[in-house]
Amino acid sequence: MGVLDHLFDLFEITPRRKRRKPWQTVEIKVKMDCDGCERRVRHAVSSMKGAKSVEVNRKQSRVTVTGHVDPNKVLKKVRSTGKRAEFWPYVPYNLVAYPYVAQAYDKKAPSGYVRNVAQALPSPNAADEKLVSLFSDENPNACSIM
C-alpha cells in the first residue's frame, strides 16, 4: 500500500497556480496641478490588482506604488488618466559622483535630486589630471620640478 500511495502522489494532477509578481516599489513622475488631478491618479492606481499602497506627492510630482504590480502596467494606468507620465528619473544628488554636469543637472528636478545618468569619469591620461599629479605630495620628483 505504501508503494501505491507514493505512485498516486507522483502522478496526481493538480491545477497549477499562477506565479505572483515580485514585490516592487514603482516610482513615477506625473505633473499634477490640483486636488482633482491627484485624486484621479490615486484612484486609478489604487484600483489596480496587486497595489498595496499608493503615495502621491504633488509637490514633487511623484507617485509611489508598492505591491505585486508590473511597472509598465502602472505607467500605462497613470497615462490613461490623461496625464503625461514617466518613470522617476531622479536620484539624490549625494549618490552621484558629479551631480552638476550638463547631463545630470535638471532645473525641473525637486530639490536635492539630479537626473540619473551614466557618468563618465575623467580619463587618467587627461592633461588636467597629469598637471595635478605632477605637483602632488605623492610624487617624489615634485621638488626637483619646482
UniProtKB/TrEMBL annotation:
Q: Name one Pfam family in it.
A: HMA
Q: Name where it's found.
A: Membrane
Query: Where is it mostly found?
Result: membrane
Which keywords does this Swiss-Prot/TrEMBL entry list? Answer: Cadmium, Lipoprotein, Membrane, Metal-binding, Methylation, Prenylation
User: Which GO annotations describe the biological process of this protein?
Assistant: response to stress
The family assignment reads: Belongs to the HIPP family.
The name this protein carries in UniProt is HMA domain-containing protein
Taxon lineage: Eukaryota, Viridiplantae, Streptophyta, Embryophyta, Tracheophyta
